[in-house]
TrEMBL record:
Residues 9-172 form the DJ-1/PfpI domain. It comes from the Bacteria. Keywords: Glutamine amidotransferase, Transferase. InterPro entries: Class_I_gatase-like, DJ-1/PfpI, Prot/Nucl_acid_deglycase. This is Glutamine amidotransferase. The keyword Metal-binding does not apply. Pfam families: DJ-1_PfpI. One of its GO terms (cellular component) is cytoplasm. GO terms for molecular function: transferase activity. PANTHER family: DJ-1_PFPI DOMAIN-CONTAINING PROTEIN, PROTEIN/NUCLEIC ACID DEGLYCASE DJ-1-RELATED.
Length: 205
């Protein structure tokens, strides 16, 4: 159950893929279509500034070592170059702690490879950039790969790099923040450029 002031923690690191999580962060922080603004808190392994793939310099709000699932309502993991170099061990461990106690984890693109290497996709339905991308990790969950833009299995949300809108939609749905009708309108506006969906979206709440 969400707290009175729900909080999303986004892990940040060098080469973080800005575009993959942009839609989700905006909708959580503003609550413009959900009616429920969230706190968005950045978390990193060290206090040093990081630079995203798009060149945005960010200073973390807190350290990963101080992050506890009990104080969070969502952990967000974006793609980055280091995931493909077998990085992110501490982040995967954090994701495991979140999932163990029923706090959702939303992972997109390279972050799904990190979760695969950590065994977190071996028993959960999931998606990513392509089946072959995850198979290269040597994980045991290939039979649970789903060829969809975004997949939710319990507390885990996954998506590929070409599906930032669907990633946002799936996460907002898992969090119970908005109706399916509004979510369909959201994807209509931001993915299909469907002008007829806009009135439905702005009347969401």
């Amino acid at each position: 159950m969400l707290s009175m002031t729900p909080t999303a923690h986004i892990a940040i690191y060098d080469t973080l893929a800005d575009w993959e999580i942009g839609h989700l962060l905006v909708e959580l922080r503003t609550g413009r279509f959900t009616g429920t603004p969230w706190n968005v808190v950045t978390v990193a392994e060290t206090a040093e500034p990081v630079t995203s793939m798009g060149g945005i310099r960010m200073v973390p709000d807190m350290l990963l070592a101080d992050l506890h699932p009990a104080s969070s309502d969502l952990l967000i993991l974006a793609g980055a170059e280091f995931w493909d170099a077998d990085g992110g061990t501490a982040l995967v461990a954090a994701a495991a702690r979140f999932l163990d106690v029923g706090v959702p984890v939303a992972a997109i693109c390279g972050a799904t490879a990190g979760l695969a290497r950590g065994g977190l996709l071996d028993h959960r339905r999931h998606t990513s950039a392509a089946p072959e991308y995850l198979e290269a990790t040597g994980y045991a969950g290939a039979g649970l790969y789903v060829d969809e833009r975004a997949v939710v299995d319990g507390d885990l949300i996954t998506a590929g790099p070409d599906s930032p809108v669907q990633f946002a939609r799936a996460t907002l749905r898992r969090l119970g923040l908005v109706s399916d009708r509004t979510l369909e309108a959201y994807e209509g506006v931001f993915h299909r450029a469907d002008a007829s969906a806009y009135p439905v979206l702005v009347q969401a709440h």
